[in-house]
From TrEMBL:
Domain of life: Bacteria
Organism listed in the record: Pontibacter oryzae
Pfam families: OMP_b-brl_2 (PF13568)
Annotated keywords: Signal
Signal peptide: 1-20
Outer membrane protein beta-barrel domain ranges (all copies): 18-161
Source lineage: Bacteria, Pseudomonadati, Bacteroidota, Cytophagia, Cytophagales
InterPro entries xrefs: Beta-barrel_OMP_2 (IPR025665)
Protein's name in the database: PorT family protein
Length: 193
């Protein structure tokens, strides 16, 4: 985990050191989160949220293509069909996306690493477990989305899906759960240099 954080910090430092087109911003929005997997019992989705910082390092002068690293606090999880059992897990997500501007429309996709930072399991509205060590502390996945950018205002709104390649449980005998999150996201990009 430390190596991944150091790699991300090095990547951000490299971006800051470059004299190229760099834009920084903030991002927040709603998560519609669920747990999926071939062996997982049927679950419903929960509305959660995400918030954090975003950046774009443009690799072309016409700002057509950028690398977009982000650091987001993101709440995920799911609930049983009868709404009695809720699994809520919080992560620090670090997606590194390729970003393509096609006029006011943009497309983004890339890998993501997630670090578990908290969560709990509720049964009947009562917290029964806030030590979620049965879930992996790090997961690897992907993110992809599309959106609309009002570049003169610095605002953009988009939809994004992110999912895990790795299962959540450390126990090989447990059902294979993976995070599956639909995001509605709003970002404000500060003026670039």
């Amino acid at each position: 985990m430390k190596k991944t954080l150091l790699l991300f910090a090095f990547m951000l430092a490299t971006v800051f050191a470059a004299q190229a087109q760099l834009h920084l911003g903030v991002r927040a929005g709603a998560n519609y989160s669920g747990l999926t997997g071939d062996e997982a019992p049927q679950t419903d989705r929960l509305f959660r949220f995400h918030a954090g910082i975003t950046s774009k390092f443009f690799l072309t002068e016409d700002q057509f293509f950028a690398i977009q690293p982000e650091l987001l606090f993101s709440q995920k999880g799911g609930e049983s069909k009868d709404d009695n059992v809720k699994t809520k897990i919080s992560y620090l997500d670090v997606p590194v996306l390729g970003h393509i501007n096609a006029g006011p429309i943009y497309f983004e996709a890339g890998p993501q690493v997630s670090f578990r930072v908290g969560g709990d399991i509720e049964v009947g509205g009562t917290n029964v477990d806030d030590d979620l060590d049965q879930f992996k502390s790090t997961s690897f996945g992907y993110a992809a989305g599309v959106g609309f950018a009002a570049t003169s205002l610095g605002l953009n709104i988009g939809v994004r899906y992110n999912g895990d390649f790795s299962q959540l449980n450390d126990d090989d005998n447990a059902p294979e759960y993976r995070n599956s999150v639909f995001m509605l996201t709003l970002a404000y990009m500060f003026p670039g240099r």
